[in-house]
Amino acid sequence: MGSLNDFDLPINDNISSNVNNPMDPEEFRRQGHMMIDFIADYYKNIEKYPVLSQVEPGYLKKRLPKSAPYYPESIETILNDVQDHIVPGITHWQSPNYYAYFPSSGSIAGFLGEMLATGFNVVGFNWMSSPAATELESIVMDWLGDMLRLPKSFLFSGNGGGVLQGTTCEAILCTLVAARDRTLNKIGKDNIGKLSVYCSDQTHCAFKKAAQIAGINMNNFRVIPTTLSSSFSMSPELLRKTIVADLEAGLVPTFLLATVGTTSTTAVDPLGPLCNVAKDYGMWVHVDAAYAGSVCICPEFRHFIDGVEGANSFSFNAHKWFFTTLDCCCLWVRDPAALTKSLTTDPEYLKNKATESKQVVDYKDWQIALSRRFRSLKLWLVLRSYGVEKLRGFLRSHVKMAKMFEGFLVADDRFEIVVPRNFATVCFRLSPSAISTKPVLYEINGTRRSSGGAEKALTVNEINAKLMDSINGSGRIYMTHSVVDGIFLLRFAVGASLTEESHVVTAWKVVKEHADAILSRYNTCEFGPGQ
Amino acid sequence: MGSLNDFDLPINDNISSNVNNPMDPEEFRRQGHMMIDFIADYYKNIEKYPVLSQVEPGYLKKRLPKSAPYYPESIETILNDVQDHIVPGITHWQSPNYYAYFPSSGSIAGFLGEMLATGFNVVGFNWMSSPAATELESIVMDWLGDMLRLPKSFLFSGNGGGVLQGTTCEAILCTLVAARDRTLNKIGKDNIGKLSVYCSDQTHCAFKKAAQIAGINMNNFRVIPTTLSSSFSMSPELLRKTIVADLEAGLVPTFLLATVGTTSTTAVDPLGPLCNVAKDYGMWVHVDAAYAGSVCICPEFRHFIDGVEGANSFSFNAHKWFFTTLDCCCLWVRDPAALTKSLTTDPEYLKNKATESKQVVDYKDWQIALSRRFRSLKLWLVLRSYGVEKLRGFLRSHVKMAKMFEGFLVADDRFEIVVPRNFATVCFRLSPSAISTKPVLYEINGTRRSSGGAEKALTVNEINAKLMDSINGSGRIYMTHSVVDGIFLLRFAVGASLTEESHVVTAWKVVKEHADAILSRYNTCEFGPGQ
């Protein structure tokens, strides 16, 4: 492998433009077919790998050279290295045994759409730069809005409109900035320090970050507490109380983030009542349905977004649980002008007759970045390849598998469901009643400790954490956790596209085996091996 | 094509989880090979299409159904529609006859890297979520920083570090927020209205937008004027004067954006002297080398970023002129802690032992979004497939072709080079001396108008705009314009990966033919056809 030491060598000015072309179509074809086979084989063999990567920090630095090669390397060599050095460091989100975080559900159609977008490689910042990129996006967003039965006012056909963002974080930032500027235009730009914004203690951390980026005074970032008894849903009464107190303190309530399907427990905020409160104070409401939005294309789930007609904007991630590879966040707004007022740029080098005609959408003015990929292709391919019928079928099959897993838990009285399941994510733990109330001796880092009695709550959490680590360490399945109202829970999120019922049956076996081992270790006075 | 009218049909609860799997490996293989052939054929035939799409606003709505299909459609049907309905609405950025804006240079390696990233489809927000995604990114950013001879302090190996953002807009926003918070931590959060930021009138519009998003008071957004006589480069003296005046007015100078290769004319700001000024006032300097950064891997171009050692951060777009498909912006910072202080989130559901060990990078804290694609794969494939040698060769071949085009212009005294060429973009126009100084009658929208005399400057711009529209309307090549110091100029940006010398020769013929026609129409008293 070469080095950079030739940096000061004389320059060869006779370099011909006939160096092998980096986009030669026939070479593209040859290497492209190889890569398709590589990835198809990866999916075929994916269950052979531990789901959660088992490498140690710094593993890759030891395996790769210190600098870029000076001379070209063949695709064969590179693919060998991918197999030998990259695959071991992958946590296999596409594995059928992946139940962590939320799914990152791929599909053939999503993959092909991404290929097409990469192949055209247009920079669709405005209509002019590639009309199909803009027009397909508008069309697909109306299709999808229709599938979700969003209010007409969120669709282009009703003077609203949809846009594809990369992530929910960006969707939140854009709508927050629009809301911020709408308010500041009324009360004066100098009053940015007075704006207050609202969410619950279950809201995704993306909102806090967006507020920080947008220059909101973090002393005015209001977090409404939720409780297990109300399934972690935001209380409209508590929201109103908080707003009233803020108004009395001279603040200007500006923005509410409501969630349908929170990250920890897939809790659902009551959109209708919350929007009514926000309306009384002229606030912008954004609905973050990042995870659960997709399943609302099924009539039996649509009620979870009832009340969205009172909101100003709504988003969900097609890359989460809608078979559209990362990244693809669908955002609809009732008033596109509020977005574009804050986000429009108009430099000379982008001026063109189509924009001047005002007949076209220029999506650069609906998002943070100027450049944008042709993301609508993958969404279009997903909608067409599967159709509404199959998409509902896929989503329902995930819900059915989650129900099945829930059934296994319910039938085993050592486990408990921590919060009622809304979608395809089950939140559970080893029940306190399954864990001895007698003080139990165990050893951590060589120190003998005792559980039980006053320490019991802590112990239940500790034991559940141990159960999760033990399961994930096996590499057979992968789950993640959360802590709500002081309770450590395990999340079993069904949604990886390759997952079938047999995988869920196996997953339950894995959970049970590790639970058996953990309970037998910590529910007796015998010492297990050091932790 | 089905409709949504069945929304209220009874739900079939017996749906089996054995619906065809959307990721079936063998079906993936079959469809993947088809798509590779489709795209290879697209590249093979790309010169048959008009470079600039010639469709009218709303063309696609007329061709596509009003709603998503209810039943699945075959990939064959979809690909036919891509060919018939999407391709006509594409502006072919990958065409060898594309010279507009800046290149969006694809490559086989970049494409394959994107395929791999899409295939793994991991969400690499932190180390734990897929260690290879984080580690490869850190390694590749050090490789590339080394290739650019960035100061060691920008590399992980020197306690700085690099991160892949989607776009320069995001890189600017992140560094601006870091700089903003660094200053506010000293002077108090309530003083956000006092912060002032600096750029030139040639700086990309992304900076203004970032400042707006970050809550900077736009009354304190300072734009240093530049002139043709100094090739549109920012004056350190003028910068200092502006800063001093702002300090006297009670403002707090916070951030300077310097550019290497501006969008209009590829002007270069003098980094060394500008950083010296900024240093005197404790400001953050970000260097935006979005376009020109890549060519600085060639020793003969490296001097353009001399002085970068005085900056706080540096970015360039590998997706512009570095064969790495959209999106891939490389950002290095000297002080990662300044970034992560502003952008870190730490929710319970993402807590993990690797993060707690502080042995790992969690890139979510270096960017706006939480989710992130495995972008380093494509950059790694580009570096390895071509190596430093070929990459320099590709870039030099583009510069050589731009020089050749410049030579054609210089040899034809009807044209003039508006600003000296720095890289592979030539800024030119029909020279005022080539346009009759006698009043010339011509017709616009049926109204007879006269050029020449006092109106001459306007006429020169108008005639050059007509030249550009005429060329682009032909579909044979595509160029875009800018206006600097009142001068309308055409930009000929070489960099599409398929472009070879023969294309540039053809491009020159096209320009000449259209110039002949335009001049013969407007430089006589004969009326051409209506405009």
TrEMBL record, chains A, B:
A molecular function (GO) term: carboxy-lyase activity
Family matches, as InterPro entries: Aromatic_deC, PyrdxlP-dep_de-COase, PyrdxlP-dep_Trfase, PyrdxlP-dep_Trfase_major, PyrdxlP-dep_Trfase_small, Pyridoxal-P_BS
Cofactors that this protein relies on: pyridoxal 5'-phosphate
Stored Gene3D superfamilies: Aspartate Aminotransferase, domain 1 (3.90.1150.10), dopa decarboxylase, N-terminal domain (1.20.1340.10), Type I PLP-dependent aspartate aminotransferase-like (Major domain) (3.40.640.10)
Tagged with keyword Lyase: yes
Keyword Lyase: yes
Domain of life: Eukaryota
One GO location term (cellular component): cytoplasm
PROSITE patterns: DDC_GAD_HDC_YDC
Gene Ontology biological process terms in this record: amino acid metabolic process; carboxylic acid metabolic process
Keywords from the UniProt entry: Decarboxylase, Lyase, Pyridoxal phosphate
Residues modified to N6-(pyridoxal phosphate)lysine: K320
Family membership noted in the UniProt record: Belongs to the group II decarboxylase family.
Protein name stated in the entry: Aromatic-L-amino-acid decarboxylase
Organism of provenance: Trema orientale (Charcoal tree)
